[in-house]
From TrEMBL:
Domain CsbD-like: 5-56
Top-level taxon of the source organism: Bacteria
Region (Disordered): 22-67
Biological classification of the source: Bacteria, Pseudomonadati, Pseudomonadota, Betaproteobacteria, Burkholderiales
Residues spanning the membrane: none
Name assigned to this protein: CsbD-like domain-containing protein
Originating species: Massilia varians
Family: Belongs to the UPF0337 (CsbD) family.
């Protein structure tokens, strides 16, 4: 199951990549750097969402086990 952090993180990562490429196209190091920062932030948020999903799956597995 995909969670909010995975989706938002991926969207930030894509948006950052677009901003980075736009900055490169218009020769704007500032825009390029902002895009890189957004991309890294998105990747970190997606990674956090991935970890959150794994924890939730483990908790579900434990809850389903017979006691």
């Amino acid at each position: 199951m995909i969670n909010k952090n995975q989706v938002e993180g991926k969207l930030k990562e894509i948006g950052g990549k677009i901003q980075e490429e736009f900055g490169d196209a218009i020769d704007s190091p500032t825009q390029e750097a902002k895009g890189q920062a957004t991309k890294v932030e998105g990747k970190a948020q997606k990674t956090m969402g991935d970890a959150q999903e794994k924890v939730e799956e483990k908790l579900d597995d434990v809850a389903r086990r017979p006691h």
